Amino acid sequence: MVTCTVIHPNTGIGFELAAQLLAKGNYHVLLACRSPDKGYAALQRLQSRDLPGTVCFTHLDVTDDASIHAAASQVEKDYGRLDVLVNNAAIGRAQEDDLRKKMRECFDTNATGPAILGYAFEELLRKSDYPLKRIVNVSSGAGSIGRMFDPNRKAVTHYGRTIHYQASKAALSMVTAQQALDFAPHGVKVLCWNPGFTVSELGPFNKVEHGAKPTEEAVRPLVEIIEGGRDGEAGVFLSEDGKSYPW
Ligand SMILES: NC(=O)c1ccc[n+]([C@@H]2O[C@H](COP(=O)([O-])OP(=O)(O)OC[C@H]3O[C@@H](n4cnc5c(N)ncnc54)[C@H](OP(=O)(O)O)[C@@H]3O)[C@@H](O)[C@H]2O)c1
């Protein structure tokens, strides 16, 4: 069994990723959620599908170091290693009106959390002998600085100003690049991927009527990345359509 931790799989892309991995039969998926109620509800929904893989819940809040280290200790105790880590949690709409607070909130969840998680699980990933061991950071095209200056880019205006989200995802690119270099000696790949506009709870416009694609469609390329299908494209920001974005 490949032991895979999916961070925040209770809704949207994370939930569908857990379902698609479980359907394959060779994954043991750890649902790492901050809310035990939502986590156990997701666990029940997945178990009711009678998929061949195995699944369990672990508590983890990406903004809380104690919970990150407790989750890593639990994984160490239960499995002695980790094969795949998917950093999926993010917020698009910070609760705060004040920009400084919004920036803090988004950076804490979207960039600092994955950075701390990567290092917290580094030793467990190092211990894995799975040949495709890796971290996949789910990012966003909104964090691509190169795209900002592309005259053909369609600017997303319906959310208003989202500099807090964009800047936090740009920071996630640097977290990915630094950890890709740091973990390479352990044989651990660190990749960054944008799912594209998808139905989820991320914001009020993530709905079919606004052009968002279904999660089933969005997640298939992520499974391909987890299974090494795009390993030839080292050091790029992978996009949803099989191509890449400028960093
Ligand atoms: N959907 C899109 O169009 C789109 C496009 C580009 C990139 N993405 C990226 O895809 C990933 C998944 O997002 P999604 O679209 O599936 O959105 P989602 O349905 O809102 O899922 C995001 C998850 O992150 C968790 N989360 C929120 N705040 C958190 C915090 N402070 N600490 C820990 N976890 C927290 C949420 O848990 P709770 O339920 O407990 O709040 C939720 O399960 C994100 O990284 C997002 O940036 C999505």
UniProtKB/TrEMBL annotation:
It comes from the Eukaryota. Belongs to the short-chain dehydrogenases/reductases (SDR) family. This is Uncharacterized protein. InterPro entries: Fungal_SecMetab_SDRs, NAD(P)-bd_dom_sf, SDR_fam. Coiled coil: none annotated. It comes from Friedmanniomyces simplex. It holds the Pfam family adh_short. GO terms for cellular component: cytoplasm. One of its GO terms (molecular function) is oxidoreductase activity. One of its GO terms (biological process) is secondary metabolic process.
